[in-house]
TrEMBL record:
PROSITE patterns documented for this protein: TPR
Designated name of the protein: Tetratricopeptide repeat protein
Gene3D superfamilies registered for this protein in UniProt: Tetratricopeptide repeat domain
Keywords: Repeat, TPR repeat
Keyword Repeat: yes
Record Pfam families: TPR_16 (PF13432), TPR_8 (PF13181)
GO biological process terms on file: receptor-mediated virion attachment to host cell
Naturally occurring in which organism (per UniProt): Xanthocytophaga agilis
A GO CC annotation given for this chain: cell outer membrane
Sequence ranges of the TPR repeats: 2-35, 36-69, 70-103, 172-205, 240-273
Source domain of life: Bacteria
Length: 289
């Protein structure tokens, strides 16, 4: 009786015996090189083993045989996203949504992928659809606020962050975000109100401490700014934004050597390409070679 190598490999995969799954799925592929699902399942085995290049190779082979194999598209997009190959992740996500526009998993993937490639309008369409079914989902409301913030629309971002806060009254990070966007909009009194609210609830929270410090710098209160941002760094020494803001404050009070060290640390920790460019511009302006 002929063995069904694919089924044997599939069973091993379901039982988390990934190496044995690969062995039998490879036999299935050798027996039938057009077996798209065998490639896809072997890709999953490699995925679970964290052998991501091999996983991508197998998902790609599966898709060359069947371009509508959504599991291969979804998993390949997820890997691309973790590897910061965001354009490739976006391409796969767009294909998934074209194949099944109402699939919730694909929509949530889009919410992660599209902002990474600055396709904020696409992300906004998705979050609007998801909110129709979940109008009080604070995570979705937060995401909508964040998308507007990314679109440089602080007023609309504040509206949505406030909606989230009406549901989750003690959400310190929503308060922080309102303060941050109010600072960008030049509404310093509103920013102060929400930073103060956040810090009353959580006095050691590094993000409102840092952002409140930057607000104080903009007001010209660099002594208080230094104190707040320093406290933020004491509570989270990996916060690249706090290093950047401390560098700006140190420049303002004439401590150039320390400012240079903090800006270099901000660049080393990094965040996004745009953020790195901002820090590099500060370094180029104040510390020309």
């Amino acid at each position: 009786m002929k063995k069904d190598y694919y089924q044997i490999g599939f069973n091993f995969l379901n039982n988390s015996k990934f190496h044995r799954a690969i062995t039998y799925l490879t036999k299935a592929i050798e027996e039938d090189p057009t077996h798209a699902w065998a490639y896809e399942r072997r890709g999953m085995a490699y995925y679970y083993l964290c052998q991501l290049p091999e996983a991508i190779e197998n998902f790609t082979s599966a898709l060359s045989l069947d371009a509508t194999l959504t599991s291969a598209l979804y998993n390949r997009a997820s890997i691309y996203l973790t590897r910061e190959e965001t354009e490739k992740a976006a391409s796969d996500t767009e294909t998934l949504l074209a194949l099944d526009p109402n699939n919730t998993d694909y929509r949530y993937l889009g919410l992660r992928v599209f902002p990474a490639v600055k396709k904020y309008r696409k992300a906004l369409l998705i979050v609007n659809d998801l909110l129709k079914a979940n109008p009080e989902n604070v995570d979705l409301i937060w995401t909508k606020g964040w998308i507007f913030a990314s679109l440089e629309n602080p007023q609309e971002a504040i509206i949505w962050y406030k909606k989230g806060l009406q549901i989750d009254h003690t959400n310190v990070m929503l308060m922080n975000n309102i303060g941050f966007e109010a600072t960008k909009a030049g509404n310093f009194s509103l920013a102060e109100e929400y930073f103060e609210r956040a810090l009353r609830l959580s006095p050691e929270e590094p993000y409102p401490l840092n952002n409140y410090g930057y607000l104080e710098h903009l007001r010209g209160n660099n002594g208080r700014a230094h104190k707040l941002i320093n406290q933020s760094l004491e509570n989270d020494c990996s916060n690249s934004f706090a290093y950047k803001n401390m560098g700006i404050v140190l420049l303002a009070i004439g401590q150039r050597e320390k400012a240079f060290e903090h800006l270099q640390m901000a660049l080393e920790l990094g965040y996004t390409q745009d953020y790195d460019e901002e820090v590099n511009q500060l370094l180029s302006k104040h510390f020309p070679e």
